[in-house]
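Sample entry (271 residues):
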Amino acid sequence: MSNPKEPDIVGTHKGTFGRDYSEPNWDSYEACFYKEGIRIDSSVHTFSCPIAPKRIAEKIPNAKLILCLREPVERSISHWRMIVDLEADKRNGTDWKEFDLAWKDDRLRRESLYGESIKNWLEFFPISQFHIIDSEEMKNNPKSVIYNIEEFLGVNHQQWINLESNNANRASDRRIKSEFGIKVSMLASKIPFFLKAPIVYPLQRLGINIYKSKLLTSKNPSYSMEQKYYTICGKEISKDLELFQKLTKFRIEHWTKIISENLETHFSKNS
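Predicted structure, serialized as tokens:
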């Protein structure tokens, strides 16, 4: 795995808000990997970047591409809430206080338009170089998913992989950094990784993330999926999902059913 896990070097999308259209620094990218074996880059925003497919095709034409996708309306709401909880919108000069405002912003919307994104990638890569996973399957049958990924990558089964649920990255577990926590994180980011590794890796194996400790963070407020969110983006996402299924043959009916049911229920309540 690259260090950091999400280098955000190849694509123009540097996280949710950052955009940089200059050519990637491939030397810096190489420096993110320091072990032998298959290299894995988990820069999630690369998928929605329209320029990344061409860059990767030119540099790594035989790349294998793994997509772990979540029901896209739920994904958008989760992404939006994370940004608002962490006040990242304010720090980047915008206001995502209400979801309808956030959805109008391409920096949120395009992340959930899987069809539009995969269309860009299929101009440069055959569908055979993609392995697509439903995130619910990842949660419910992790062992099966891992075996399928290993088969796709052509590697032997890794017995050491920890599939315990307490390693899951859940929104309900998200904690907001305090002012002190932000300062500590900034200080830690300046420490070379080789100095941090002897401390970080043992703690990770024990399931401990010191940056999420109560000393450095506070609990984020809870939220629930509301039908009004589906009325804002449901129709656009449903149409895009049809394109995604047409291009990939990946079944999406269970997602469109959820969206349709929520749209119908909201319409019935307001009739």
